Amino acid sequence: MVTDDELAELAMSADPDTPLAPDAVPLDVYLGTGPAPLPEWYMPRAMRGLTSRRRRVVVGTLVSAFVLIEAFGLCSTYGQLPFH
User: Fold this and answer.
1) In this structure, is residue 25 part of a structural domain?
2) How many structural domains does the chain have?
3) φ, ψ dihedrals at 53, nearest 5°
4) Angle at 38 between CA 27 and CA 41, to 5 degrees
């Protein structure tokens, strides 16, 4: 069993520029091999970051739209707006 202090010491002494071993296993595959504490539908495995520019633009536009709606005091999550 490795203690937290030993693990921290190993992490701090590791060289980040060292290439990965050819038989290295991705973290999501490694963590998904045993029994999971949460079901896959509740908390999916870790994904790579957003790599596509188009995807970043879409997500940024949606987030900006919701921030703008909230800035004007409009309700964006509770149904229809009360226009009378």
Assistant:
1) yes
2) 1
3) -65, -40
4) 90
